[in-house]
Description:
Blueprint (H helix, E strand, L loop, with lengths): L2 E7 L3 H13 L5 E5 L7 H4 L11 H4 L15 H14 L6 E3 L1 E9 L4 E8 L4 E12 L23 E3 L14 E5 L3 H10 L5 E6 L5 E4 L4 H9 L2 H25 L1 H16 L5 H4 L12 E4 L2 H8 L2 E5 L2 E4 L3 E4 L4 E3 L2 E4 L12 E4 L2 E2 L7 E2 L3 E2 L5 E3 L8 H22 L3 E4 L9 E2 L6 H4 L7 E2 L11 H10 L7 E4 L10 H9 L1
Parallel strand pairs: 1-2, 1-6, 2-3, 4-17, 6-21, 7-16, 8-9, 8-16, 9-12, 10-11
Antiparallel strand pairs: 4-5, 5-6, 13-14, 14-15, 17-18, 19-20, 22-25, 23-24
Helix pairs in contact: 1-11, 5-10, 6-7, 7-8, 11-13
Amino acid sequence: MEHFDVLVVGAGISGIGAGYYLQNRCPGRTYAIFEGRAQLGGTWDLFRYPGIRSDSDMYTLGFSFRPWTEAKAIADGPSILNYLNETAKAYGIDRHIRYQHMVKKASWDSERSVWTVEFTRGPDAEPDKVTCNFLHMCAGYYNYASGYRPEFPGEAAYMGEIIHPQHWPTDLDYAGKLVVIIGSGATAVTLVPEMAKTARHVTMLQRSPTYVVSRPAEDAFANWLRTVLPGKLAYDIVRWRNVLLQMFFYNRARARPDQLKKLIIDGVKAQLGPDYDVARHFTPTYNPWDQRLCLVPDADLFDAIKTGSASVVTDQIDTFTKTGILLKSGLELDAQIVVTATGLDMQLMSGLELVVDGAPVDLSQTFSYKGMMYSGVPNLSSTFGYTNASWTLKADLTAEYLCRLLNQLDRTGMTEARPVNDDPNLEATPWLDFSSGYVQRALSRLPKQGKAAPWRVYQNYALDLLAFRYGKLDDGVMRFSKAKKPVIEAPAVTARASADA
């Protein structure tokens, strides 16, 4: 049976970043990246709907070790996918990726300090197994097979097409057609202006509004700075500027929500004018950052509304009809195409089945350690990004901490690192304090967090940077031990190949 020191699951942003850090900081360790799909890129390869783009700036969504050099700070999906492919190739990470390797189950044996990982490979999904000493999950936070898709009354009678953005048809022709997009999140506000370019009309049908903020697609300061400073230095400066600005506005939103709410709403009013019903269509009932803000580059959503090619309707669905959607208010929206931008099905670690020493692990009964490991589960980490900032910021820190932990095991001759909660009075709170529907639907399946470190999940890059990069590894909660039986080791030739990569 093939063996690796570290098995990384997922070849998206998190997995590619993990490959870089493993090569750079643990050059003696062998590793492989198992990717269930046929290409790398994760989200940026899976989603192909019109106009797909980042909702974070590329100076923080990009890797800390590889500068983003394109003019647009809010980038389109194909550009991001190209950046990921170039990064994987430039550092030889692509040579470690095994495609169509779908991980299903992982079983831990404490006596040997080893995971046995069951997976299927190839187009025929043939069953197979490998072993590894450490398992690092980079499989994202949602179900790649299907999105969240509620059933609506009367759908069977509808004569048009119903499409979920996660499964966008490559041959869909919406030019000159009436389109209704159900939803008000990041996907909906991306689709509306893009489809409105050629559709007869696009209606964004929302049950309740979301905070929408316009921002220039290009960062003029960043583009200028690259002309006067070395590329990496300019990138680092802009990255830290954006991190600090984001932290400032997030903390301001928590301390003075009414002030930030007014600032956002006034911005929408300035875009749409005094006669538009901003109170109804763009004023949420919750505070900013109770849910993620929606970013629109260069006010494209507002421009589509002003030109009349798009509109927003705030109402509830009564039933589908043959030709569209009847709303609770009695208004009927004609539609030849309905797009259900109704969200994601949140899924931690791609639904991996975990077993530790013969006992199944229910992650909902565990506490999250630093937001990346789980109480009672040894030699396993997972990447989960920030809800209030770019995913990659947390992914980078998680990979750095993983390497610190692996090197600590090497230095001490230990083979197992297991976070242990032995405090019976540790109070459990929800893992994510976020009111978005996709989070609320999944809370019962997610681990818990405590009210203090290391069991608390901080949505704060600065605090995490200090804890992950400089905090004590042997903190009294992380327990280190040595296998009772000989540990499986990867062949030396594989280790050299990893180091050369």
